Amino acid sequence: MRLSLLAALLLAAGATAAQATELTVMSFNVWGGGANEQKPVDETVAVIKAVNPDIIGIQETRLESDPCTADVCPAVGDSVAPKLAAALGYHYYDQAKQNDALWANAILSRYPIGKATPNDTGVEITVDGRKVQVFNIHLDDSPYQPYQLLGIEYGDAPFLKTADEAVKAAEATRGPALKLLFDDMAAAGEADAAFVFGDFNEPSHRDWTESAVKAGLQPLVVPFPTVKAIEDKGFVDTFRAIYPDAGAKPGMTWTPTSEPSAKDDHHDRIDFALARAKDLQVISAGIAGEKAPEADIVVTPWPSDHRATMAKVKF
């Protein structure tokens, strides 16, 4: 009798220890909380509430300067992160350092936020007794290789003709930021799960594919390097884990402010939520935005010049 009771208690303890953790995560360039277009912060709060995430990486918590050009556009004013956190009842951390990997970034979480990494690209969060490392970056938008390939003027960047030229230009543009991120990953050490959120200002090698070219979405196949470099660290592109065919489900996050037919712009997926964990399961993923079919979660009015990306994961 006593042995049976002990065995049952041990089995119950083992089941509890092995219980999976489930999180909804989100990456959202909030465009100054909408304030670049004089929108109230309530609209940004409404977007986040519609997704109901546990952890969020937000970019552009502060305003763009006036003027704001391709080459010079410092962040100005106060961060909107405290207002968002107060309205949502979340914890927050403003990533206040200035370096190649950041442009007015912040991390919001239902769970208390711990120590930051040396380059300020990430923080440690304890979820159900498990260490979760959360990184959130905003990479340089100039030179912007899709524009360079399509002959769209943006700053003084030269036009490009080939995929190889685009890859080399992307590596030069965002390589310094990736080094800061990877140095922080090494400093953070092992974790039960890790996430990388961000506005990468670069498409993925999983988007400029033959399928996307056949669908008329992209002009040629380009193995863009930034997402691939992070995937090589063991991370999974949560959106493409659910929707592997870029021709069938493009998931464009840039931009709801112009039509796909616009000659002075090009729509693309440049916002990401990447995840790494043992026995990671991506349950669902999607885009939040202003209208269907571009968005899976529709919120109007829409406050940003980016759509948001989200995923539900288990580990």
Which regions have little confidence, pLDDT < 50, spanning 5+ residues? Answer: none
Please outline the major beta sheet: 7 strands, mixed
The topology string of helices and strands comes to HEHEEEHEEEEEHHEHHEHEEEE
Trace the largest sheet across and list its strands: 5-6-2-1-15-13-14
The fraction of residues assigned to DSSP E strands is: 25-35%
Mean model confidence by pLDDT: 95
Q: What spatial form do the alpha-carbon principal axes imply?
A: globular
Distinct helical segment count: 8
Count of distinct strands:
15
**What structural category do the secondary elements indicate?**
alpha+beta
Helical proportion, percent range? 25-40%
Distance between the termini: 36 Å
Query: For the CA atoms, what is the radius of gyration?
Result: 20 Å
| Assembly annotation | single chain
Structure summary:
27% of the residues lie in helices and 25% in strands.
Give me the secondary-structure topology.
Elements: H1 2-17, E1 22-29, H2 41-51, E2 55-59, E3 63-64, E4 75-76, H3 81-88, E5 91-95, E6 105-109, E7 113-116, E8 122-127, E9 130-138, H4 145-150, H5 163-188, E10 193-199, H6 210-214, H7 225-231, E11 236-237, H8 238-242, E12 271-277, E13 281-289, E14 297-298, E15 308-314
Parallel strand pairs: 1-2, 9-10, 13-14
Antiparallel strand pairs: 1-15, 2-6, 3-4, 5-6, 7-8, 8-9, 10-12, 11-12, 13-15
Helix pairs in contact: 2-3, 5-7
